[in-house]
Amino acid sequence: xxxxxxxxxxxxxxxxxxxxxxxxxxxxxxxxxxxxxxxxxxxxxxxxxxxxxxxxxxxxxxxxxxxxxxxxxxxxxxxxxxxxxxxxxxxxxxxxxxxxxxxxxxxxxxxxxxxxxxxxxxxxxxxxxxxxxxxxxxxxxxxxxxxx
Length: 148
Known about the structure:
This protein has 148 residues and is an alpha+beta fold. It has a single domain (13-146), classed as Pnp Oxidase, Chain A, CATH 2.30.110. 28% of the residues lie in helices and 27% in strands. Strands 2-1-5-6-7-4-3 form a seven-stranded antiparallel sheet, sandwiched between helices. The radius of gyration is 14 Å and the shape is globular.
């Protein structure tokens, strides 16, 4: 089931273009992180303040049908905007990993569970470790479980 509402594309051109390419091709194009060849998914959220539908390409880190979403923002000092969307609306989230999006429920993980998922994420995308070194904040880790 699609998230109802008005879609507001990202103000960042490369993000907007990647999401559009990914969706229009059913996930056969625009499905890798720029210049790396590493797979991405598209995460759809509801804006925490605007209520508008937002879409973000994130690294694809999947384990036994669950996905990990790392709110790294490249090691910036602040959480990415989509972090706040997940916190405000954890049951209004979809992931597109291939031709069609599917509903997920997300939850932020901490302590030992976070460590396990963090290790999986770093194995899939090694720069996450560097991002954590660059920032004083603990980078949030979410686990997304399909609702189907």
